[in-house]
């Protein structure tokens, strides 16, 4: 897919979508993009990298995959893959929630690395760092089990630039194999994990060892640079269903 | 180690009014400047960010720019290494001096 950008220009009859700002969810309309903001949108732009900051401008970050991909024009096709939204407020880029109305419902914008139902996303790889690998990966989930002494650590590549996201999420369940001394930590690390070495997380959620399926979220608003998303599990049986950033 | 968190779950190295002590290994080996730039939410508690997003503990995440924190930590570790090298040098000098006295 060739990369380009779409900016707001005069008129809009050729576009298949519109952009609405405000703090109240608007009426649904096919491919309508709602930016949840109390600040006036002066312009908007779709682009894979952060553009020049202009007061009030909204930047829709694009990627090669997206839950809310859409054809931006009425005739022929220019597919757009939005995964994030920011607005310039008082000179600084601020995260803003965005949704697109598709198939009769509002859908959140997210960047998935692993998604239950479709598995590992395009362009994403998964690496296990363990001595006795006992794991399976399919389109539904990542499953791992290990006995005491054989830590299970895995991570997603490539590293992701955190500045473009506010939080990351891990949707999983797990069962303690031995005791609460053995727990899972999930988060962002500046380097890939090394066998038998503690993961040098910059931000993480920890202490996970016996839980029904739920989502664990990590605040990454102050994390700069590219980080690897890592699951550090030791003597804990687990299943990971979804990993995403927004 | 013992750290102190305030009502916004920001970390501090010392006790003060409005702070409570928590025990955690999450920030072991980190310098005071690094610790002060982090937020620690204990297990069983939650923190609500300004935009309303709720984060459940145990969560450890910076609230200051992580690059500044890493720089502080790097400088701290370098300083510690130089200090230890200096101490090791002094120990050697004392040892050599003692050996001369002992003959």
Mean pLDDT of chain A: 87
Termini distance of chain A? 22 Å
Number of strands of chain B: 7
Give a short account of the largest sheet of chain A. 7 strands, antiparallel
Strand content of chain B: 15-25%
Q: Give the total of beta strands of chain A.
A: 23
The helix/strand class of chain A is mainly beta
Placed side by side, the strands forming the largest sheet of chain B appear as 2-1-3
What letter string, H or E per element, gives the SSE order of chain B? EEEHEEEEH
Shape of chain A: elongated
Oligomer: heterodimer
| Biggest β-sheet strands, sense, barrel of chain B | 3 strands, antiparallel
Radius of gyration of chain A: 20 Å
The stretches of 5 or more residues of chain A where confidence is low (pLDDT under 50) are 1-5
Approximate helicity band of chain A: under 10%
Characterization of this structure:
The complex is a heterodimer of chains A (246) and B (103). Chain A is mostly beta strands. Chain A contains no helices and 23 strands. Chain A has strands at residues 6-7, 18-22, 32-36, 43-47, 57-62, 70-71, 79-80, 82-89, 92-95, 98-102, 105-108, 111-115, 119-120, 125-129, 135-137, 142-144, 152-161, 167-176, 184-189, 203-208, 211-219, 226-233, 236-245. In chain A, strand 10 and strand 11 (105-108) form a beta hairpin. Chain A is elongated, with a radius of gyration of 20 Å. The relative contact order of chain A is 0.15. With 103 residues, chain B is α+β, with helices and mostly antiparallel strands. Chain B is 41% helix and 23% strand. Chain B contains two helices and seven strands. Chain B has helices at 32-36, 66-102, and strands spanning 2-5, 11-12, 20-23, 38-41, 46-48, 54-56, 59-62. In chain B, strands 2-1-3 form a three-stranded antiparallel sheet. In chain B, strands 4-7 form a two-stranded antiparallel ribbon. A two-stranded antiparallel ribbon of chain B has the order 5-6. In chain B, strand 5 and strand 6 (54-56) form a beta hairpin. The model of chain B has no long low-confidence stretch (mean pLDDT 90). At the A-B interface, strand 20 and strand 21 of A face strand 7 and helix 2 of B.
């Amino acid at each position: 897919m060739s990369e380009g950008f779409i900016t707001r220009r005069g008129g809009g009859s050729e576009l298949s979508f519109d952009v609405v700002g405000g703090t109240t969810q608007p009426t649904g309309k096919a491919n309508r993009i709602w930016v949840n903001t109390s600040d006036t949108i002066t312009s908007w732009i779709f682009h894979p990298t952060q553009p020049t900051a202009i007061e009030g401008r909204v930047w829709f970050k694009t990627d090669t995959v997206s839950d809310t991909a859409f054809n931006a024009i009425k005739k022929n096709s220019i597919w757009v893959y939005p995964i994030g939204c920011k607005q310039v407020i008082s000179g600084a880029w601020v995260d803003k929630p965005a949704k697109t109305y598709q198939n009769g419902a509002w859908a959140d914008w997210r960047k998935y690395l692993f998604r239950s139902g479709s598995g590992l996303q395009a362009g994403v790889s998964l690496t296990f760092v363990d001595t006795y690998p006992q794991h399976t990966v399919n389109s539904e989930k990542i499953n791992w089990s290990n006995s005491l002494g054989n830590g299970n650590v895995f991570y997603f590549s490539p590293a992701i630039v955190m500045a473009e996201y506010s939080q990351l999420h891990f949707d999983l369940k797990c069962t303690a194999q031995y005791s609460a001394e053995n727990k899972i930590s999930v988060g962002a690390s500046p380097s890939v994990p090394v066998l038998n070495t503690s993961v040098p997380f910059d931000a993480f959620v920890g202490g996970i060892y016996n839980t029904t399926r739920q989502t664990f979220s990590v605040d990454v608003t102050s994390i700069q640079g590219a980080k690897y998303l890592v699951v550090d599990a030791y003597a804990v049986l687990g299943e990971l269903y979804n990993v995403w950033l927004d | 180690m013992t750290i102190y968190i305030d009502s916004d779950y920001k970390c501090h190295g010392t006790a003060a009014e409005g702070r409570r002590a928590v025990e955690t290994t999450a920030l072991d080996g980190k310098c005071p400047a690094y610790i002060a730039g982090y937020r620690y939410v204990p297990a069983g508690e939650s923190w609500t960010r300004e935009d309303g997003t709720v984060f459940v503990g145990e969560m450890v995440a910076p609230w200051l720019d992580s690059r500044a924190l890493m720089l502080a930590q790097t400088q701290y570790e370098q300083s510690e290494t130089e200090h230890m090298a200096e101490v090791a040098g002094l120990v050697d000098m004392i040892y050599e001096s003692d050996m001369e006295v002992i003959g």
